[in-house]
Amino acid sequence: MQLLAEQARDLSKRQMDAADKSGEFKKQETPISQQDTKQARQQQQDLKDQAEQFRQSLQETAEQLDETYPDIAKDLRDAVKNMDDRKILAAQQRALNALLYKRFDRAEKEQTDASNLLAALAMELDAAAGKMPNMTAQELREALQKLQQQARQTAQNMEGEGQQASERMEQLRQQAEQNLQKLGEKLKDNRLNELSDNMSLPFNGESPSEAGQFMLRNLQQAAEILTEHLQRLTMEKKRELSRSQLAPPLKYRRLVEDYFKQMSK
Questions:
Q1: What's the Cα-to-Cα distance from 252 to each of 21, 132, 255, rounded to whole Å?
Q2: Of 30, 44, 95, 186, which is most buried with the most CB atoms under 10 A?
Q3: Using one digit for the tens of pLDDT, what is the confidence trace for 18-32?
């Protein structure tokens, strides 16, 4: 996603460079050579071709993200619509026509307009990229392992009795709450924030067993949410990950579910 924003920004910069060149031609008192004009038109044709390819990339990426990140896919389709509504490609074509007739003042205006519109598009794509989870697959796996560790500690403490066991369970609750809060912020997932809120209140007279059951339910839900994100990211980055680095998503989900079933017994 961020790469698309960078591509739009790069197109905008190179389009502005072309506009500056047209501005120089406009001010030049001596006639512009046929060779210079030809080079300027070829540069503008290349920019228009690349903008068309970029538009196609937006469409293809939106289709790839439909199932995994539908909100971001919609943002990409909106970006394609904005390109069409703002007539970026049309401005580039008008610049080409102006260069053909050596209307450098007109070419400069159209090229500047196209550059500014591409810069605005880059900012919109930056905002869309900001919606992507800020965690790698490896970080998600490590976060799942941490949840499993917290579940294991909780299950072990459920067997204890008395003040010491209750105090230890309270410590585990605080650690789990903080962990879920951080995960919710990184993944931009309100479901994790809600689970963190569920665990924000201190225990009030519950036995270690009762408190532990409550925590295990919340930790299991959190693990399922993380597994969902891992599946999405795996689909998105599958070409970058080998089978040896990552278990198949469905198998991973079953492992997580089995683990928490064992913990709650």
A1: 56, 22, 5
A2: 95
A3: 999 999 999 998 999
Q: What is the number of structural domains in the chain?
A: 2
Considering the domain architecture, whether residues 8 and 54 belong to the same structural domain is answered as yes
Residues 117 and 178 in one domain: no
Together in a domain, 97 and 177: no
How far is the C-alpha of 81 from the C-alpha of 79, rounded, in Å?
5
Among 140, 149, 150, 151, smallest CA distance to 260 is for: 151
What's the pLDDT at 232?
A: 78
Token pair 């007109």 in the structure block, residue: 106
Q: Does 17 share its domain with 43?
A: yes
Q: Which of 87, 104, 129 lies at the terminal end of a domain, its last residue?
A: 129
Long-range contacts of 178-184 (CB under 8 A, 24+ apart): 179/146, 179/147, 179/150, 180/218, 180/222, 183/143, 183/222, 183/226
- Both 120 and 168 in one domain: the answer is no
Say whether 205 sits in a helix, a strand or coil: coil
pTM, rounded to two decimals? 0.66
Q: What confidence category does residue 215 fall into, taking pLDDT thresholds of 50, 70 and 90?
A: very high
Q: How far apart are CA 220 and CA 254, in angstroms?
A: 12
